[in-house]
Amino acid sequence: MKNQDSILIFGSSGQIGRSLIRKFTKNNYRVIAVTRSIHRKGFQIKTQSNYGYLELEEINSFTENNISKLMKRVTVCINLIGILYEKKKNHFNLIHSDLPSLLSKEASKNAVDQFIHLSALGIESATDSKYALSKLDGERNIKKNFPKSVILKPSIVYSVDDNFTTNFMRLLSILPVMPLYYNGKTKFSPIHVSDLTDIIFQIVQTKISGETIECVGPEVITFKEILLKILKSINKKRLLLPLPLFLAKINAKLFQLMPKPLLTMDQLKLLKYDNVISKKYKTNFDFNMEAKKKFEDEINRYSFNWTTGGQFAKKKI
Ligand SMILES: NC(=O)c1ccc[n+]([C@@H]2O[C@H](COP(=O)([O-])OP(=O)(O)OC[C@H]3O[C@@H](n4cnc5c(N)ncnc54)[C@H](OP(=O)(O)O)[C@@H]3O)[C@@H](O)[C@H]2O)c1
Does residue 171 lie in a domain region? Predict the structure, then answer.
């Protein structure tokens, strides 16, 4: 039996998933959060919710049968599963195309009202990136299986819980030099995770359907500006060194051997393309769903973790 205020979230243990659980459970929705390992991720997920509003579901292998059982119980399904690099059996096509295809098929079969899928911004131009092509393929499969689905295409999503600003804060606090790829000129429209989860919440509340929406923050800033803002915020001066492409490729080839790569060849290709609105789709601003949080203001709230002297250190820069 379907519970009217129940949300099923796949990929719930990630940055966006944890923030979404907080948003929905605080507003009296019941959330079923799917993870591959309750043992490893349970403590991160459980602490996000009001007592009694969250159910954890462990799924290791996704089948029609186990997905369908969950879809039967909810009116809204949100898919946040995604990877930034391929490892072993986790291929882009499997995660970004085949899995969303299966989820959207099951959502449709089981009369789910809303299927919301997180894709990515700027992937249309990045025709040489496997990540981008697999995300686009996923969008096409979903639209075919569940034409009323909502596809969200965010720029970089950041917060104290991310793998982006916090990684750069860590690296910039220890390394004397930071390489700049493509001269640091690639543009981004970073959106704070709480602005994005407010948008998803409004999409559910106002029952928006059949839309593709680019989700961006209030500013357009270059990669170099992002690094400079982070440096200012952590109170450090570092050399930002533009790397010629052939050196950047060697850099990426070495980095991608790491268990959690800092950069892969595919990510280097993606970095070539601006990550800003395409004007092909509507944006969150067209739906009056504003994203007001500014990058510098927000990172200043948590950068003290990487500042010498901590929260009460005097700013030098
Ligand atoms: N963060 C950004 O800047 C950004 C920008 C644009 C688009 N997006 C998209 O937004 C979505 C959510 O992003 P996020 O930052 O919250 O991601 P995240 O922190 O990396 O979390 C992704 C989730 O995917 C699940 N997952 C990973 N590999 C999986 C696999 N092989 N099978 C099943 N589940 C798997 C993980 O869940 P378990 O380990 O618990 O199973 C994890 O919770 C992704 O699709 C991402 O591509 C993110």
Answer: no
Which residues constitute the domain of residue 113? 6-159+189-219+276-293
The answer to whether position 24 is within a domain reads yes
Would you say the pTM of this structure is higher than 0.85? yes
Handedness of CA 62, 66, 70, 71 (dihedral sign): positive
CATH number at residue 67: 3.40.50.720
Mutation to probe ligand 1, out of 34, 80, 85, 97 (largest number of atoms < 8 A from CB): 80
Beta bridge partners of 87: 90
Low-confidence ranges of the chain (pLDDT < 50): none
Q: In a mutational test of the pocket of ligand 1, which residue from 157, 159, 193, 199 has the highest number of ligand atoms less than 8 Å from its CB?
A: 157
User: By CB neighbour count within 10 A (0-12 exposed, 13-18 middle, 19+ buried), where does 155 fall?
Assistant: buried
pLDDT of 103: 98
Q: Determine whether the shortest distance from the Cβ of 120 to ligand 1 is under 6 A.
A: yes
Q: How many domains does the chain have?
A: 1
